[in-house]
Predict the 3D structure of the following.
Amino acid sequence: MFFNEVTSALDPELVGEVLNVVAMFAERPDMTMPLVTHEMGFARDVADRVLMLDHG
């Protein structure tokens, strides 16, 4: 499953709920989950590996 900026254009009230759902998917050992986000704290919390683009 590929997640691309899943929290962009959401009401702030919904962001936490969406991030909780994504975190549930991230816990599954049978799933690879590329995630594009500006929520760096969240990425660090749920990811096994984090890649960052600079000027890209």
Remarks:
- The first helix runs from residue 12 to 26.
- The beta strands are 3-4, 35-36.
- The longest strand covers residues 3-4.
- The radius of gyration is 11 Å.
